[in-house]
Amino acid sequence: MAAGLAAWVADYADSPVFAQLGGSYIGGFFIGWAFRRFLKMAALVAGGIFAAIAGLKGTGWVELDWSAIETQIMHSMAALQRGAEGLKQFLSGYLPSAGAAGAGTFFGFRKK
Question: What is the 3-state secondary structure (H, E, C) of the chain?
Answer without folding.
Answer: CHHHHHHHHHHHHCCHHHHHHHHHHHHHHHHHHHHHHHHHHHHHHHHHHHHHHHHHHHHCCCCCCHHHHHHHHHHHHHHHHHHHHHHHHHHHCCHHHHHHHHHHHHHHHHCC
